[in-house]
Amino acid sequence: MSYHALLRDEGAPSCRPKAGESRRSTSGEDLLKHDLATKLHGLRKVSPSEDAGNDPALNYANVVHRALSHPGFLHAALLLTTLHWAWHTGDVEQFRVPYLYHKVQAIRFVNEQLQDPESAASDGTIAVVASLAVMENSLGSTEAVSSHLQGLARIKELQCEERRPKKMGLLQRMIAMAARSVSSRPVWDMLNISRTDDVHQSVIISLIRVALRPIYSMPTLSGADDPEEPLAEVLAKKTPHPRTSDVHTIPSHRTVDTSRSEFIACYFYLYMILRENNVDSFLVEWFIEQLLADVCRTEALMQKGQYSQSLWFWTVMFGASAANATKAYSEMEEAHMKMLKDVYLDKINLVSQLLRIRNWEGAKSVLRLFAWEDNFNGESEMQAIWEEAVWGDNGKRPRTKHSDFALALRPADTGIPI
Q1: Is-contact 8 103, C-beta < 8 A?
Q2: In a domain, 35, yes or no
């Protein structure tokens, strides 16, 4: 389905402000302020230092500044913040109207950008299309997600060759390797992994989902299925068709855990299509925040042995590779992403000590318990991340002040309307 068709489908009067309602741009400002306040609440105690460059308030002010610097980033921020609003507040009554409104505005923006090849391939346009895909996947709209992923693939074809690398970055190779490893394991093994603990860890569920029930397989997205044909054309041929029963089987509400799992899963698709090793930190921020939310809410249980320590180790190694694959556009963005990477390095060091991992061979043996290939072509890069975490500064890497990074989350039984 084209963006024009999507716009016609969603352009119903119910999406528009009713008479007497405040304009949705004001609502959008409120949403951004709410998300900023939520982030600051979780980060206020964990600033790595007192200098202005590492002040979390300034870091997130910079994120908001990026959102306001370009219409594309603003539309993306408003869409994703609408979802975060529902996650954090449980305010489902106020979710649907701003969501539909900002979705329609985002699609209109994309349609306008597509009139000019230069603006069509801009980072702002990519941010909007990516946010539309993530939003739809979080709400379970598979057909709409596939349309946005195809659109993103077509946009990538308009970019210069250096923005379309033939070799995938480390994070993309990690995602593809994990999907291969998981899909090769017996079904009962996957069931045991998903039932290991009472605490839901979205990133593990997301990986299982993209490995076993993907919208598009990782080999397809990596170009392995047909390297000579443009990816957009390959995806168009493989577009999933909605089943009649889907209308009746999709629940009226999704839990926050389910929504977050699909949110993270969609980022795996996005990374594979974007291919670049370093992705705009504006997009990556939302992804890493959710990865860290899993890490933080399972850390105490992991330390007590009530959550799988090997799964936790795999998760923080994966998260570190994500935090290492960002592209910053200012010193403040760079400082903030470094802080997030340092948080992950602290977590790797912590769990390595708990598991008594003394060397890289020991680390690989733990990674192999969930997903690892002995011939993985990103091993040296993952080894460098582990060694930086454990052996940085000759094994005396100080524990950072922000190692207790925390994010406020609503209980998992909160409903998200779809």
Answers
A1: no
A2: no
Q: Is residue 9 part of a domain?
A: no
Q: Which domain holds residue 191?
A: 57-218+253-410
Q: What pLDDT is recorded for position 403?
A: 47
Question: Domain for residue 151, yes or no?
Answer: yes
Comparing CA positions, the residue from 149, 255, 246, 240 lying closest to residue 202 is 255
Phi first, then psi: give them for residue 45, nearest 5 degrees. Answer: -85, -10
| Number of domain units in the chain | 1
Q: Are 240 and 215 in contact (CB under 8 A)?
A: yes
- Find all residues with CB under 8 Å of 106, minimum gap 6, and list them: 75, 76, 78, 79, 128, 131, 132
289-328 per-position pLDDT tens digit: 889 988 998 899 899 988 889 999 999 999 999 999 888 8
Diameter of the chain measured on Cα atoms: 66
How far is it, in rounded angstroms, from Cα 35 to Cα 12?
A: 28
With cut-offs at 50, 70 and 90, classify the pLDDT of residue 273: very high
Is 146:269 a contact under the CB 8 Å cutoff? no
387 occurs within a structural domain: yes
User: Is residue 167's pLDDT more than 50?
Assistant: yes
Report the candidate in 74, 67, 73, 242 with the shortest Cα–Cα distance to residue 145.
Answer: 242
Token representation of residue 338: 């470094």
Rounded-to-integer distance, Cα 336 and Cα 111, Å: 33
